C-alpha cells in the first residue's frame, strides 16, 4: 500500500521543514510506504530551497512548481500527480503524529471504506505545547455506514487534513477542490464526500497537529472572502445532498463561520468606512442560504431580518454599535467586576476549603445544612444524581433513560465550594430519590428524611476484594466510621445474586435492600460491543496478533502514584511475533511508565479496550467481572499477595476463587503465556454466577424501579 501525501506550499519556509520531518518520522513497515508531493505555489521566499534540501536526501519526495493559484488548485494538482492508492492532504504548517500512517494502514488493509477520519490536535507555536482539540467526531468510533449520522458528525469535523481518502473513490465521483476560492472551500469538499460515501471509518486517535500561530491563513479578513463564501454556498445547494443539513447550517450560521468571519472580523473588526462594501455581497449570500436555516440558527443579535440593502446596512451598523457597548462593558468588567468576582470566587472556593481543612468540620456543616433544608417541603417528582470522582460515567445512562419521564432531574457536581455545598444539600433534602455510584461524602453520617430514598448504584460488578464495612473489625472506630458512610442507603443494586450477601455486610443493609438488577459498566460494554477486529484497529493494534492487556488495581499505600512491577521487555522479546501488549492503569492512580514497545490504554474507554483484548492480566481488580462477558482467558499476577491480603482481604479464598492461572513472578507469567486459548470455561462460569443479571438493560430496570417508587410515594 502506498500513501501519497500532498502539501501545497506558499511562502512556508519557516514551517514546512517541520511538516516534512513529521512525515519522514512515521512508523513504517514492509506493508506500506509513502511519497511526499509538494506543490510550490509560486513562493517568493526560500520555501523551494528548503524542499530541495530534503529532495536531495529522500527519493520519495517530488516537487512541482506553479504560478500562484491558491491552496485548492495546488491540492488538485497534487492529487493528479499522486501514484498512491491512499491520499492525504496536509497544509505546509501541519504535522503528523508518528503513528498516523500506521493507523490509516490498519483500516484500509482490513476494511473497504471510502475514507478514514481521525482527531485534530493543536500545536501552539509560541510555547511549543501540544493539546488535543475537542472531539468533534462526537466519540463515534469504528465503522460508520449510517448516512443519517454523516452530517451531524462531520459538520464540526470539516477539515480535509484529518482524513485519508481512497484515490479510487475520489476518482470515481470526480471529487476535486473548488479552485479560485480560499475561505470555506473545505465545506464543499466535505459535503461532497458525504454525499457519495457509503462507508467511513472513525479513529479515536489524533492524526494531525494543526499549528496555531499569528499567520494562520484566515486570521485577517479580506472582503473578497465573501465571494468565496458565496461560491461555496451556491455549489452546496447544487449538490442536492439527500441528507439533513441542519447540523451543518447550525455550525455555519450560529457556532462558527458566519459569526467568526462575517460578524466578528468583517463587521466588528473593520472601520465603518468599509462596511458599505459588505452590503451587496452579504445580500447575495443571504439570498443563497435557505431562509429556514437563517431563522432557526441566527441569534437575534446578528439576525438580518430585513433582506433589503438598506436593511442589511442598518443591521451591520446595529451589530457594530452593540459591540462597542459590549467592549465598554468589558473594560468596566475588567477593572471593577472581575476583581470583585475573583475575590468572591476565592472566598467561595479556596478560603472555604482551607477553613474546612483547618477545623475538619465539613461533615458537621453539611449535616446542619441538610437538617435546615429538611424543614422545606419535599419536591415530589424530583430525582437527584450525585456525581463522584467518575463524574456521570455510570449514572449518565440512568439519567438519559429518565429524561422523558416528566421528572425533575438535578445533577449535583463534584466541586467543593461553599455555594456548591449549599446547593447540593438543598437538592438532597428536597429529593425523594437520590442516586449515587460510589462513596458519597455529602451523605456521610446523615439520616435522610423518611420520604427520601438513596439508591447506591455501585460502579463495580461482582464481588472480589473486601470493601465498605468489611474492611474493618466490628466494634472498632474504623467500622463505626464505615457504618456512618453507608447509613443513608435505602437500596443497593448488584450485578448478580451471588453478590448479595457480600453487599449486605459491606453496606450494613438487609437482604431486601439489595436488588440484583445488573451493573451499569457491564451495560456499557454489552451495548457498545463491536467486532473484536474493529476494536483492535481503532486502538492501533495489529488485528492479526493477539492483544494482552495488563490491568492492575490500585494499592492504597501507593496512591496517587503507581509503580509498574512488570517489565515487558522480556515478554516483547519472546512474543512480539504473535502478541501485542497494553497497559490499563486504574483511573485513580498516576502511573510511572517508562517502557517501550507497549500500548498505554489507560485513557481509552474500558469497554473498547476489553472488547479488543484476547487475554487479561490482572491481580485483584474487579475488571475481571466485566471482562468475563467475553469468556476469554484471565491470568493473575499477584506479585504482592501476602501484603495485599493483610491490608484488604477477599470474600473468597483468592487462590481457589480466581478463574485463571496464577503467576507470582515474571518468569512464571512468561511461561503461562506460551499458549493462550480463545475461551476459558472458568471465566464463563464467573460471568454466569456473579454477573447473571447483566443483560444490557440495567439503566432501564433502575429507571423502572424509580418510576414505581415515585408512583407509590405519590399515591
UniProtKB/TrEMBL annotation:
> Domain of life, per the record?
Bacteria
Record's bilayer topology term: Peripheral membrane protein
Q: Which InterPro entries match?
A: Glycerophosphate_synth, Glyco_trans_2-like, Nucleotide-diphossugar_trans, TagF_C, TagF_N, Teichoic_Acid_Biosynth
Q: Which GO terms describe its cellular component?
A: plasma membrane
Among Pfam families, the record links this protein to: Glycos_transf_2 (PF00535), Glyphos_transf (PF04464)
An example GO BP is:
teichoic acid biosynthetic process
Tell me a Gene Ontology molecular-function term this record carries.
Answer: CDP-glycerol glycerophosphotransferase activity
Main location per UniProt?
membrane
| Keywords from the UniProt entry | Cell membrane, Membrane, Teichoic acid biosynthesis, Transferase
Name the Gene3D superfamilies for this protein.
Answer: 3.40.50.11820, 3.40.50.12580, Spore Coat Polysaccharide Biosynthesis Protein SpsA, Chain A
Glycosyltransferase 2-like domain location = 4-150
Q: Where found in the cell? A: Cell membrane
Which family does the record claim for this protein?
Belongs to the CDP-glycerol glycerophosphotransferase family.
Protein's name according to its UniProt entry: Glycosyltransferase family 2 protein
- Which organism is this entry from? Helicobacter apodemus
